[in-house]
Design goal:
- This protein is mainly α.
- The longest helix is centred in the middle third of the chain and has 35 residues.
- It is elongated.
- The protein starts with 12 loop residues before the first helix and ends with a helix.
């Protein structure tokens, strides 16, 4: 098992109650386990958010690098979008 380091964390009463509830119901064996699980979920969420940002930045770069729009017709674009929407609703 990895080395464990002890720290002190101040939590608002509502969060302390949630931690104690998770332990008292047997869902977790200790407060530390609850906090570790919360940190794992937070880390995972941060990773997913960073991946989404990276994908968005890449799409923006691709759009910028593709050059200016030529022969753009807004009415035609709206008509295509309406057609796609109707097709999606029909499914």
């Amino acid at each position: 098992m990895a080395t464990v380091k002890k720290i002190s964390v101040a939590l608002p009463p509502e969060m302390v109650a949630l931690v104690h509830q998770a332990v008292s119901t047997g869902e977790y064996s200790s407060s530390s386990e609850v906090i570790r699980e919360a940190l794992r979920a937070w880390k995972h969420e941060r990773t997913l958010r960073q991946q989404a940002l990276d994908e968005l930045r890449s799409a923006i770069r691709d759009g910028i690098n593709s050059g200016p729009i030529e022969n753009f017709n807004m009415e035609e674009l709206i008509a295509q979008a309406k057609t796609l929407r109707r097709a999606e609703k029909a499914q």
